[in-house]
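Convert to structure. Protein one:
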Amino acid sequence: MCVCALHRRYWRKMNLSEGIVAAFFFVVFLRGGPLAHCQLTPTFYDQTCPNVSSIIRNVIATELATDARIGGSLIRLHFHDCFVNGCDASLLLDNSDTIVSEKEAGGNNNSARGFDVVDRMKALLESACPATVSCADILTIAAEESVVLAGGPNWTVPLGRRDSTTASRDAANAFLPPPTLTLAQLRESFTNVSLNNNSDLVALSGAHTFGRAKCSTFNFRLYNFSGSGAPDPSLDATFLAALQQLCPQGGDGECHNRS
């Protein structure tokens, strides 16, 4: 498990200020906002753990050789962490006597993945730089490195986040946007966490084209849109046929579409 208790707890509200879209890879630039007692800076680990980014990058590159989805999965972990009380790695905490894990919230249960990869990053960083790099920063760096390794753009990553020692499944259930939201509802959900630029929504919600989506989350658009008994008329016919082949009517809703 990623050892978040190594760091003092600071709550930091998410401030994702600028979405970046490049080709089919949707990414988000995380601009550091003020903390209670410190300011995020790209040079935070320059003296204490100068190889932090390369260590994380190497783990992802190795994993990509056997798991093409891992980039999208790591971006999603960062997204789902930041959407609930800020980017504090609370998503990584397991159930305990005092913690009700966010991993079992509706938006994460049986879908959030890549925790084992984060654990490998943390283990290597603990060996190289003991008790130095926060889990929240690991998730942040991993998201950017995943985009770069997939052929997308790079961006400067402000660092210095602190990890939470508590989690909130209730907040995760309340704030993580489900796949059934309309565009207007998605915009409202993102605006509620200060993501007012449409590019932010495209980068994060659209990043599902970078990984996989369960057929059960969109089958209604393929076969019974708005109770019509017909597909969503806005879907491109060729794209619709491809999705129907991957997600047959009456099939296992748990099968996945690889975009």
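Protein two, convert as well:
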Amino acid sequence: MKPGKGKTWTDKVNDPTKEPIVKKLEKDFTDMPAGGKMLIATPKIIDDYIRHIPKGKSANLTVLRKDLAAEYGADYTCPVTTGIFLRIVSEAAYEQLQKGASINRVAPFWRVVEEKSSLNKKFSFGSDFVVQQRKKEGIAADNPKKKSSR
């Protein structure tokens, strides 16, 4: 399935016009207080992060957001765009698999997306793939370990 504007999911991950932005929050936003610096990442940044999670390990979104904020000199990473970008990365990886890519060549998004995540309902391919991949790698159901290193 293609996203809007004729771009594939993979095109959206690799869009060279997207750059990370760190902005100062003028008012409270979700779990972030006014005055804090918030990173708005890119799909490519999320993709790169996920590719560094070792096989059999997982990282939840809280860990991912903290790691990226620290890497980019921010206090927080935007939870809304992180969720959107994680979906883009996940759909792109599945799209690549459908085109014949090896499982070892795509971003292993199942290491971040938990089995009961609401994101699974949005995927064009459902949740079975996530469940199968987590099981194959021995990742406990909805109990991700903190990622020690990427």
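The chain has one domain: 9-136. The mean pLDDT is 91.
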